[in-house]
């Protein structure tokens, strides 16, 4: 399969690798030690701001918005951004340096695509400047949120406001000390058709009635400093002009938000898997059990070979999905987007698991990124919809495709 990349895209890939090698690798251990200290759980590493400013100066900032967004975009397609997401994915906290972190990327795309001029002025501009961060509040603890029609958070219109009542959890980004705004999904009309009941609205985090109950750990990791929160919305009142696009448009916005975001997630997973492959290869020539280095054992060679094959297969599938999105749009690419969401986390888990096994005891410690990679990859079999949802829809679409004619 032949994918075409512009000279600008190829140049950005090289510049990004060089920036990371010069500026991030030398401080990586310091940053990870800082965030592993419980007393720093919701603090920013002190050198983060300087790295962000340097990334801006080097033109490595806000790389994610496709070129259809005009002046807001660096002029890249989804296909051209994909290798950049892979490069950033090799270090879990790296994307923030370039203002390319979830959930901010999805929230910025929502504001760029659906926001009013005032909403963009108030929230999109500071997000794109990196002055603030954001959260996305959809999932709820009391209902099966993989079916978003189950969501119970109520958004009741009262004169010039909406009053929001409900409970959310896995609210990514909400623990970040710079988080100032949340996009909240709730129901504005419980009697409307199932997919027209939901709406999305902008809620500043300092609004009266919004209370963070607790941070949520992911396999023991806090994912500091952005973290994930359980949040209660108790009679939270926001102006009607905070509504995004209009009442009943929540599903439409969600679909517009998730397509590119899944490309980003999957390419970051490939970055994790690729780095895991490199780590296990290095370990194989260093360790010498029973008088022979690990790389001389056929079983180890096979594990490494399988990993390389699976990474390359997944990379090509994700690039194919990105290419189709660019050429025919998210809706027409929906089956490929479902495929990558199924394939990429499962592939990454297999490769990371092999790397942990070859690494031995060191692999489950904090001395390598593998344990945290594993936790992140496993989480992504649930985030943005569990495997079962994508498998069910893809199976339904496939049966329809081959039986309709």
Polypeptide structure, described:
It is a single chain. The chain is α+β, with helices and mostly antiparallel strands. It folds into 3 domains: 7-129, Orthogonal Bundle (Butyryl-Coa Dehydrogenase, subunit A, domain 1); 133-244, Butyryl-CoA Dehydrogenase, subunit A, domain 2; 251-403, Butyryl-CoA Dehydrogenase, subunit A, domain 3 (Up-down Bundle). 48% of the residues lie in helices and 14% in strands. It has 11 helices and 7 strands. It has helices at residues 7-24, 28-36, 48-57, 78-89, 104-114, 117-129, 250-286, 298-328, 334-359, 370-379, 387-403, and strands at residues 133-137, 154-158, 161-172, 179-187, 198-204, 210-215, 228-239. The strands form 2 sheets. The protein has a 4-stranded antiparallel sheet with strand order 2-3-7-6, with no helix packed on it. It has a 3-stranded mixed sheet with strand order 1-4-5. It is globular and about 80 Å long. 45% of the residues are buried.
């Amino acid at each position: 399969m032949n994918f075409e990349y512009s000279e600008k895209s190829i140049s950005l890939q090289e510049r990004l690798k060089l920036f990371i090698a010069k500026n991030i690798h030398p401080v990586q251990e310091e940053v990870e030690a800082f965030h592993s200290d419980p007393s720093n759980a919701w603090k920013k590493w002190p050198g983060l701001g300087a790295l962000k400013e340097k990334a801006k100066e080097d033109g490595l900032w806000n790389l994610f918005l496709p070129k259809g967004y005009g002046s807001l975009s660096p002029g890249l397609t989804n296909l051209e951004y994909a290798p950049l997401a892979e490069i950033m994915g090799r270090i879990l906290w790296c994307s923030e340096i370039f203002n390319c972190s979830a959930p901010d990327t999805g929230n910025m795309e929502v504001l760029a695509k659906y926001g009013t001029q005032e909403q963009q002025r108030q929230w999109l501009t500071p997000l794109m400047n990196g002055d603030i961060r954001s959260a996305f509040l959809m999932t709820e603890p009391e209902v099966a949120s993989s079916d978003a029609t189950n969501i119970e958070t109520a958004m009741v219109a009262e004169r010039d406001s909406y009053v929001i009542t409900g409970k959310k959890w896995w609210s990514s980004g909400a623990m970040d000390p710079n988080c100032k705004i949340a996009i909240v999904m709730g129901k504005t009309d419980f009697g409307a058709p199932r997919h027209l009941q939901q709406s999305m609205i902008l809620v500043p985090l300092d609004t009266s009635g919004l209370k963070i109950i607790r941070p949520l750990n992911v396999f023991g990791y806090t994912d500091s400093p952005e973290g994930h929160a359980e949040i209660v919305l108790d009679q939270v009142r926001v102006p009607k002009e905070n509504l995004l696009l209009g009442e009943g448009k929540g599903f439409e916005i969600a679909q517009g938000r998730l397509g590119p975001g899944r490309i980003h997630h999957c390419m970051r997973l490939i970055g994790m898997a690729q780095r895991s492959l490199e780590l296990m290869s290095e370990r194989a020539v260093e360790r010498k059990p029973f008088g022979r280095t690990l790389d001389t054992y056929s079983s180890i060679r096979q594990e490494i070979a399988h990993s390389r094959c699976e990474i390359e297969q997944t990379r090509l599938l994700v690039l194919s999905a990105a290419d189709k999105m660019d050429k025919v749009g998210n809706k027409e690419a929906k089956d490929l987007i479902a495929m990558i969401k199924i394939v990429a986390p499962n592939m990454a888990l297999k490769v990371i698991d092999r790397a942990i096994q070859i690494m031995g005891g060191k692999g489950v410690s904090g001395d390598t990124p593998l344990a945290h990679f594993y936790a992140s990859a496993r989480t992504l079999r649930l985030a943005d919809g569990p495997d079962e949802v994508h498998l069910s829809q893809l199976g339904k679409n496939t049966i329809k495709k081959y039986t309709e004619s």
